[in-house]
Amino acid sequence: MNAVVVDARGAAAPWLDEIARQGELRWRVHKFGGSCLEDLEGFRRVLDILQSEAPVRCFVVVSAVRGVTDALLGLFERARAGEPDRAGVELLISQHTALAHALAPDEARTLAAGFQRDGEELAWLLAQVRTAPRGGYGLVDRIAGIGEYWSSRLLVAALRQRGVEAQDVDARELLLVEATQRGADAIAWDESARLVAAASARWPEALIVAPGFVARSRDGGAATLGRNGSDLSAAAFARLLDAESLTVWKDVAGVLSADPRLIRRARTAPELSYAEAEELAAAGARVLHPDTLRPLRRANVPVLVRSSRDARQPGSRIVGVPTGCGAARAVTLEEDTVSVSVRGVAGSLVLSALERAGVQPRALVQCNARRSLDLVITAADRSRAEPAFAGSLGPFAQVEWRAGLALLRAVRAGFGGDARRMAALYTALADLRVPILGSFQDSHDHGLSVLIAGDHAHAALNAVHARLCHGTAKLAVAVVGTGLVGGALLRQLQQHPACGDDLRLVAVANSRSVLIDAEGITPDTATARLNWEGKPLGVEAAVAALQDSDAHVKILIDATPAESVARRHAEWLAAGVHVVSANKIAQGTSLARWREVRSGCRAGKTQYGDAATVGAGLPVLKTLRRLQGAGDGLLALEGVFSGSLSFLFNAYDGSRPFSELLAEARERGYTEPDPRADLSGGDVARKLLILARAAGIAIEETDVVVQGLVPAELTALPAEDFFARIDEVDAQIARQYAEAAAQGKVLRYIATLDRTGKAQVGPQAVRRDHPCATLSGADNLFVLTTARYHERPLVISGPGAGAEVTAQALLADALEIATTV
Ligand SMILES: NC(=O)C1=CN([C@@H]2O[C@H](COP(=O)(O)OP(=O)(O)OC[C@H]3O[C@@H](n4cnc5c(N)ncnc54)[C@H](O)[C@@H]3O)[C@@H](O)[C@H]2O)C=CC1
Ligand SMILES: N[C@@H](CC=O)C(=O)O
């Protein structure tokens, strides 16, 4: 079956039919720059990447080995100066021969012989340079392109050595260029398309490798595509092959949100539009040349920019309509600029004067009504612009210059129309007390530029980048525990609209490993990445990641049952990290530990989110605290505080063993990781202690009378042995149930507390119409009698266990802290 090919260019493109006839599989084009092929290790990384691509149809475009094109141009210049450098030629031959021996021993001799032959030809060409017409420049394309041929041959041989079917093709037989044009405009698209279609019909189902940078001019001579020409070659092949994608492999992780030399925390922009990427390129970001993007944009071929040094990273994706969060894709800074304000003449006159002087304005605002034009040019261009104005603007023009400025640009489509984003930019500058001397929205609305004094430039870039590109960095979160509750939390985080923007997940940990990513972890991928990339660093590493983060609010979420994690809560709180916990140990064990948490909060001016620890997020603690705050003291508290025990006793009627119901409660995620924590009454006792202390009743663990359901001899057994003897629990429950039934009652696991601190938890036989007897599922019940809720108590009831409700309590606590800090 033939693939249906739609010509995204909207023009007739007969060659596409030919490509389509060759089968359903679309090509993926890969481009490896010299930085990827810098040495043996670089080649090996490239080979690994390509091996993992099979069996997709790959068309690979390669640059010369790093430094080789410059070396060839150096040889050319020395030849022009009459200093032929035979040793330089030999050096290149031996460099490539060594690579051949290491990468493809089976074909090394043939490759070496080829390099030697080409080397002889190179030496001959260099010898002709001095006497050749046009100062030898007619030969430079033949000389400069040799490196690409050599690296493509090396790569093919190395692939074959690894058993990958590969074939090299000569790009000079496929890409035709007009000598009079430059960049993408130079490519003779229709003729090149016919050549590619005809050649590709003969290509086997193999990986094809072509040298980048080189092409053929219409007169049949060798041509090259200029500096960074390999990127353009790859873009041209991607368009001509109607490729599924073009991946440009570099030594950086993608398109960065700022110049990494200025912003240490510059991060990879996950997605950009072609226009945004072009805007960045025009603003000087060394990503992809706009010439590379233009043909792809027209053909709508997605471009991936990835690092061959870390092929696991997804890199940046450049597409027609990007999605994703983040207020700006990137922030750029042009230093050494000057502003010029011209009044009293038509703007068109000013612009043509600049054009004649060869000066490209970096930003401009025209006000027709006031016949004024404000524009920004580079300081270097001023020496050409000033005389041009003097000669052509006439006597009425008022020209005002201001030097020592910098142009800071936030790149993102629609930025200038989004009040929230603009406000974020202005606020970042206002916080630094940096005056905005002018603001310029580009005509295509791909971003907004502001003009500031040059001496503020770096601080301003930092602040704007932190505010716009790092999410708003309002809230950084570390999640410890990725089990039932932690897993549900990660899913909820993924769905939350603030995620990735205002809220950044910087660390995830479980009992085995920790994953840190200051740029933000996509919650969806967190567990997979933790398993794959995590390191056994301990929870402290997650806390350090929070502390390193530039977010305004840093929150550690504890979704573990671990004592070792709970033990550190107070310390982290004191160090400025807010803690949100489902883990009840820090507040529900000794009074001293509860007090440490309180003093941690005071010392670090931090908050402790504990809604999940009682009633799985039912608004019990919050209500109790509000009553306390208003002077309404607790007189008594009674109810069912365990979701799992509620479920067990609501369902138990003697027809199924208690242990069978326990298995179901575990399956539903109601029990503690070790269900004996529930059956022993320990979990309920912890909740009672947390509630009592929140109500100002400072009782100790030993003050709670606990009657459990686990026979004493089973409490200390390893879990496996306990489950092997679970029928002993069944027998005990069956007995207690029968005794209660004989009195016309049912069993419920009830907690009680009075204002004197008398506290107990345990099974009770209650009448069938008792409020605790009328619950269903895993519902909890909290009956609060207070000074003001005296005649009729305040009752809170609802699901008291389960991963989803518990996770939402954690998330809600974290968001509440973020908004109240
Ligand atoms: N299941 C429920 O309905 C509710 C549970 N909770 C509490 O939530 C917490 C988690 O419960 P589940 O998710 O059911 O447990 P789980 O056993 O499914 O998951 C526990 C997670 O914590 C990690 N962990 C254990 N020790 C650790 C350590 N020392 N350092 C780092 N990570 C460690 C484990 O690797 C695992 O990822 C418990 O404290 C539980 O009491 C609170 C309210 C309701
Ligand atoms: N295991 C607990 C879960 C919530 O804390 C319970 O059963 O209530």
UniProtKB/TrEMBL annotation:
Q: Which residues form a coiled coil?
A: none
Question: Among its keywords, does the record have Transmembrane?
Answer: no
Note the superkingdom of the native organism: Bacteria
Residue ranges annotated for the Aspartate/homoserine dehydrogenase NAD-binding domain, each copy included: 481-599
Q: What is its EC number?
A: 2.7.2.4, 1.1.1.3
Cross-referenced InterPro entries, in alphabetical order?
AceGlu_kinase-like_sf (IPR036393), ACT-like_dom_sf (IPR045865), AK-HD (IPR049638), Asp/Glu/Uridylate_kinase (IPR001048), Asp/hSer_DH_NAD-bd (IPR005106), Asp_kinase (IPR001341), AsparK_Bifunc_asparK/hSer_DH (IPR042199), Aspartate_kinase_CS (IPR018042)
Record domain Aspartate/glutamate/uridylate kinase: where: 27-307
Which pathway is this protein assigned to? Amino-acid biosynthesis; L-threonine biosynthesis; L-threonine from L-aspartate: step 1/5; Amino-acid biosynthesis; L-methionine biosynthesis via de novo pathway; L-homoserine from L-aspartate: step 3/3; Amino-acid biosynthesis; L-methionine biosynthesis via de novo pathway; L-homoserine from L-aspartate: step 1/3; Amino-acid biosynthesis; L-threonine biosynthesis; L-threonine from L-aspartate: step 3/5
What are the residue boundaries of the Homoserine dehydrogenase catalytic domain, all occurrences included? 619-814
| Swiss-Prot/TrEMBL cofactor(s) | a metal cation
Q: Reaction(s) catalyzed by this protein?
A: L-homoserine + NAD(+) = L-aspartate 4-semialdehyde + NADH + H(+); L-aspartate + ATP = 4-phospho-L-aspartate + ADP; L-homoserine + NADP(+) = L-aspartate 4-semialdehyde + NADPH + H(+)
Keywords from the UniProt entry: Amino-acid biosynthesis, ATP-binding, Kinase, Lysine biosynthesis, Metal-binding, Methionine biosynthesis, Multifunctional enzyme, NAD, NADP, Nucleotide-binding, Oxidoreductase, Sodium, Threonine biosynthesis, Transferase
Mind listing the GO molecular function terms for this protein?
Answer: aspartate kinase activity; homoserine dehydrogenase activity
Subunit structure, as described in the record:
Homotetramer.
Query: Per the similarity annotation, which family is this?
Result: In the C-terminal section; belongs to the homoserine dehydrogenase family.
Q: What does this protein do?
A: Bifunctional aspartate kinase and homoserine dehydrogenase that catalyzes the first and the third steps toward the synthesis of lysine, methionine and threonine from aspartate.
Can you name this protein?
A: Bifunctional aspartokinase/homoserine dehydrogenase
Q: Per the UniProt entry, what species is this protein from, by scientific name?
A: Tahibacter amnicola
